[in-house]
Amino acid sequence: MIIPLYDTSANEIADKLIEIRRQGGVVALSRVLTLLVPVGTEAAEQAIKAANEASMEHPCRVIVLLERDPNGRSTLDAEIRIGGDAGASEVVVLRLSGSLTNQEAGLVVPLLLPDVPVVTWWPDEVPDCPAATPLGAVAVHRVTDSWSAPEGPDECLARLRAGYSSGDTDMAWTRLTWWRAHLAAHLGQAPADPVTSVTLAGAPDDPSCKLLAAWLAWKLRCPATFHPVDGADTLTRVELVRPSGVTVIDRPIGSTEATMSAPGAADQRFRLGPRSLTDCLSEELRRLDEDVVYDEVIHNGLDWLAGPGRFTVTDDATDSPSRK
Prior knowledge:
The chain has helices spanning 10-24, 41-54, 104-108, 134-137, 153-162, 171-174, 177-187, 207-220, 277-286, 292-305, and strands at 2-5, 33-38, 60-67, 76-81, 90-96, 118-121, 141-144, 168-170, 197-202, 224-228, 235-242, 245-250, 257-261, 268-271, 311-313. The chain has 324 residues and is an alpha/beta fold.
C-alpha cells in the first residue's frame, strides 16, 4: 500500500504513521533500526528494493530522501509505503524542494524510531566526509559506495580516507567479504612459508580490487600487482606466491563459482559470485560497530601500497588470465 501526502510536514508524516499503525495493526515496536537513504531519482527504486529485501532480516523504518528543485518553492511531498510495498519495514519517501533541501536532518528527526540505531546509506553519492553531513551526523553507521563515484578508485579512496570517521565503511569493502574469508582460511593453513608477492586481476575501475590489494599486501608485508581485465565486473583472480608454489583463486568472468588451486592439494570449487546489493546492505545492517579492519586497510593498507615498488598496475587491460 502506498499512501501519498502532498505539501506536508515531518510532524504530519509522523502522525500519519501512528494513525496507520493504530488502524491497520502495523507493528513498529519490532523495528531494530532506522535506515536513512539520501539518493537520486534514478537510483531510488533500486535502493528501496534492496532496503525492503534487507528488512526481511532487519525490520526497520526506511526514510528515503529525494531532492527535486533546490531553487523552487519550498515543499515537502511524501509517500508512506507499507505491506507488500515495504517488505518487513515501513518506507517513507520524502521529496524535498526549495530551501528544504538544506534541512534534511531537521526533517528526519521527528521520523526516527526511538531507542534504536540510525544507519545512513548513500547508494549513489560519496560525501567527502560522511560523518560531517547532516544525515551522517545522526548515524552510528555510515555506508558509502565508491563504485558510484565519478572519479577513479584511487581518487575516491583517497577522499574516503581523508574524511574517515569511526563508523564509516564502503560497499566496495563489503563486496570482498567472501574473498577475504576464503583467503584468510587458506593463509591459516600450512605451508607456513611467507607469501612473497600477490597478484590480482579484475575490473579496471573497481575499488574493491585496490582495497583487497591493500589488505593482502599490508598484512603479508609484500608487493602487489594488479592486472585490469576487459569485460570483468569485479575481482576475478588472486594469486599468492610462495617459495613452495603459487596458490590461485580464479573466478571466470560471468561465473558464480571459483576454483582454488594450491601446491600439494586437490583443487577446491566453491560459490563466489558477485554479491547483490541486498546481500551487501544486509551485512552492513548486521554489523553496526566500527569495522576495525576497514579502518586499518583504508589507512595502513593504502599507506603500504604507496611505498616504492609495492604496487604495480599493468598498463593495458587484458583478457582474463582465467581464459588462458
